[in-house]
Structure formats: C-alpha cells, structure tokens
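$ ./design --mode recover --in tokens.txt
reading tokens...
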C-alpha cells in the first residue's frame, strides 16, 4: 500500500503521462492503425494502474490517479479511433 506522500507524488507523473498520451493522440489523428496502437497502450496503462488501487480504513475502495488518467486516455483513444474510422468510410 502506498503512503499518502507517495500517492501525492504520483499525481504530477500521472498527469504528465496523460498529457503526453494526448499529444501522441493528436499527432495520430486520422491514422486508424496508429490510433489502434494507442488504444492498446491505454489499455496497458489501465492494466498497470489496476494494481495500485487501495481500500480505505472505512472499507471503501479508493481510485488511484493512475487509474483515472488511464481511463481518460482510453476514452480519448476510442473517440479518436471512431472519428478516423468514420472518416475512412466517408
């Protein structure tokens, strides 16, 4: 289990990773294969983050910042992929 200090230190790293992912996503806009690769990368991010969750003293599950950022990356990648596919079918 991570300490509060470790969780706090993870925030800027996770946000930076998410922002870097979004830059790569913008660069790949319209390229279906590159976007599919980025979707796979986002899934890998989510899998890696899944083991970081914790349970609070009150028994509630707490979501890590890594999980939140990974889910944003997956949603962004899926949206970009669907736009590219729609454009390719036009």
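writing sequence...
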């Amino acid at each position: 289990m991570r300490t509060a200090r470790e969780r706090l230190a993870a925030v800027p790293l996770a946000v930076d990773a998410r922002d870097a992912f979004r830059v790569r996503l913008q660069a790949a806009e319209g390229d279906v294969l590159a976007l599919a690769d980025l979707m796979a990368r986002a899934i890998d991010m989510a899998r890696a983050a899944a083991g970081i969750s914790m349970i609070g003293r009150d028994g509630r599950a707490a979501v890590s910042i890594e999980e939140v950022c990974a889910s944003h990356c997956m949603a962004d990648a899926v949206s970009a992929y669907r736009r590219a596919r729609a454009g390719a079918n036009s």
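exit 0
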